[in-house]
Specification:
Layout: H1 6-16, H2 20-29, H3 34-51, E1 59-67, E2 70-78, H4 81-84, H5 87-103, H6 108-112, E3 115-116, E4 119-120, H7 121-132, E5 136-145, E6 148-154, E7 164-171, H8 175-188, H9 200-216, H10 224-239, E8 245-246, E9 249-253, H11 254-260, E10 264-272
Antiparallel strand pairs: 1-2, 2-5, 3-4, 6-7, 7-10, 8-9
Helix pairs in contact: 1-2, 2-3, 3-7, 5-7, 9-10
């Protein structure tokens, strides 16, 4: 009979997240040696994680950290919303976020290859997923710097952690308006900050579509250039933050709202789980 107690079982369950029978078996195999039992569970967990590698991770959360003019945003995924809302998953996501901040990582690949406690962050995440019983993954990281950073985390479902996250970099003192603009970004999903950031080939494609559409509609030849420009400008208004109509005042561009508040936006990040 292995030399371990109910308290030992409880301690290892809390430490590893493994089930009671798995913990008992591990302690039996290790003859009561908790360190060896943890190693046994890790190996077992990693084997289980390998089987989960082909599964998709479509749920999860976004999390942010802002400090000293630097904002870090991550999307951390799980297979199910059941796990996404668990305290252990949220804790694991926050640990990964802390590692991203500590390493100054601006992309997922950089962080996954970094080391923590003698192993890669990728392995650290895999082991965390093994304890949770399903595949988890760091999908992406964003990093932004500015004089000020405003963050907004939005819950699409009150029972789940935030699934939309926004970081807005700006200069100025009106935090209330900066917050309203961050909320606007969460709701209106701008893809670009300024029209100069829109890829030239995408603008040209929109121009071609507008031209062909105008011709198919039988518009007068002399009116077509103005119609095309109008439709391209509408594309910018739909997709460029500074040109979008402000959510609270749709007839006023975001750029004018910022200007009236004495603010200058310098960039933004927006993540939505799965998008």
């Amino acid at each position: 009979m292995a030399n371990f107690t109910t308290a030992d079982i409880k301690e290892l369950r809390e430490q590893t997240g493994a089930g009671m029978m798995d913990v008992k078996k591990a302690l039996d195999e290790a003859e009561g040696d908790k360190a060896k039992a943890i190693e046994f569970l890790r190996i077992k967990g990693l084997k289980g994680a390998t089987k989960r590698e082909g599964r998709s991770t479509e749920d999860g959360l976004v999390a942010a950290h802002v400090e000293n003019g630097v904002g870090t945003l991550i999307e951390f995924n799980s297979e199910t919303d059941f796990v996404a809302k668990s305290d252990k998953f949220v804790q694991l996501a926050n640990e990964v976020l802390d590692l991203a901040v500590k390493n100054g990582a601006a992309d997922a690949e950089t962080l996954l290859n970094a080391e923590v406690d003698g192993k890669s962050v990728a392995q650290f995440i895999t082991e965390g997923g093994a304890a949770l019983g399903e595949k988890v993954a760091l999908r992406r990281i964003g990093r932004i710097e500015g004089a000020n950073i405003e963050s907004y985390m939005h819950r699409t479902n009150k029972d789940l952690p935030p699934q939309v996250g926004v970081l807005l970099a700006y200069e100025g003192d009106d935090q209330a308006v900066a917050h309203d603009v961050a909320v606007h970004i969460a709701a209106m999903s701008p893809k670009y900050f300024t029209r100069e950031e829109v890829p030239a080939e995408l603008v040209e494609k929109e121009r071609e579509i507008a031209l062909e559409t105008a011709k198919n509609e039988g518009k007068p030849e002399r009116a077509i250039p103005n119609i095309v420009e109008g439709r391209v400008n509408s594309f910018f208004k739909d997709n460029v933050l500074l040109e979008q109509g402000f959510a609270k005042e749709p007839k006023t561009p975001v750029s004018k709202v910022l200007e009236a508040a004495g603010l200058k936006a310098t960039g933004f990040l927006r993540f939505r789980v799965g998008n």
